[in-house]
Specification:
Mean pLDDT: 82
Low-confidence stretches: 1-17, 237-243
Shape: flat
Helix content: 55-70%
CATH architecture of the largest domain: Orthogonal Bundle
Order of helices and strands: HHHHHHHHHHH
Length: about 240
């Protein structure tokens, strides 16, 4: 990045009042002696998020972890929202991009499998995916997904519908699984099963299907079957007619 691409900070020395996505703004020039980098900030932020979730991330805690003042952060990031956007894109770098040389369905399966794995590794992430996703890592994986579907003859509205189905499914699956894996959620799940069983007359189908109970399939198996169902459904003529 050249010097001309940096902007000087506001007179207050803080840039937190700047609006818009971090990906659409130029970065301010830090002081010459500033050894802090955006990369170090993002690395520390991801660690804090992994430990304490979004609620545990504050600019002050982030500054303390980096042994700097909160003011020093604002030369590199404008707001906590900037940090979250950067953190989400950072973990997407861990989603491998398989060589797009095989069947398009295999590429979709490989990408979504790893996408879910990474989000479960960082359980704070699924709840943030609705933010503007303009980072290079996110866009590269979105491009890979769409290009795989295009090779499967998905175009127009059919392409848009299928991308949304897949994205919502992966994010929703990761969010649900991450929540249920928490100890408090496990207790709530057991209480819910008991409540359903105690009212079997009102919920006969739920009781018969073992809803919220120990499933015959693992979460991994259920996820894989869900992707297969989406791919199969998206190939039906009913989706084609939405073009």
């Amino acid at each position: 990045m050249s010097a001309s691409e940096f902007r000087q900070p506001t007179t207050s020395g803080r840039s937190s009042q700047r609006a818009g996505s971090v990906w659409l703004r130029t970065q301010e020039r830090p002081p010459r002696r500033d050894r802090l980098t955006r990369e170090r900030i993002v690395e520390a932020a991801v660690a804090l998020l992994d430990e304490d979730g979004v609620g545990g991330l504050t600019m002050r805690r982030l500054a303390d972890r980096l042994a700097v003042t909160p003011t020093a952060l604002y030369w590199h990031v404008a707001t906590k929202d900037d940090v979250l956007d950067l953190a989400v894109d950072e973990i997407f770098a861990d989603v491998p991009l398989p060589p797009a040389a095989g069947e398009w369905q295999d590429d979709v399966r490989a990408l979504t499998r790893q996408w879910r794995t990474v989000m479960l590794r960082h359980p704070w992430a699924p709840g943030l995916i609705g933010r503007p996703m303009l980072g290079p890592n996110v866009l590269a994986r979105t491009e890979f997904l769409q290009s795989a579907l295009v090779r499967g003859d998905f175009t127009g509205t059919r392409l848009a519908v299928t991308v949304r189905l897949i994205a919502n499914y992966v994010i929703g699956a990761a969010l649900t699984e991450a929540t249920w894996r928490q100890s408090a959620a496990s207790e709530a799940r057991a209480q819910a099963r008991h409540q359903i069983a105690a009212n079997a007359a009102a919920y006969p189908t739920l009781v018969a299907s073992g809803y919220l109970g120990d499933a015959e399939c693992t979460d991994d198996e259920l996820f894989e079957r869900g992707i297969e169902a989406i791919l199969a459904t998206s190939s039906d003529s009913g989706v084609r007619r939405t073009q």
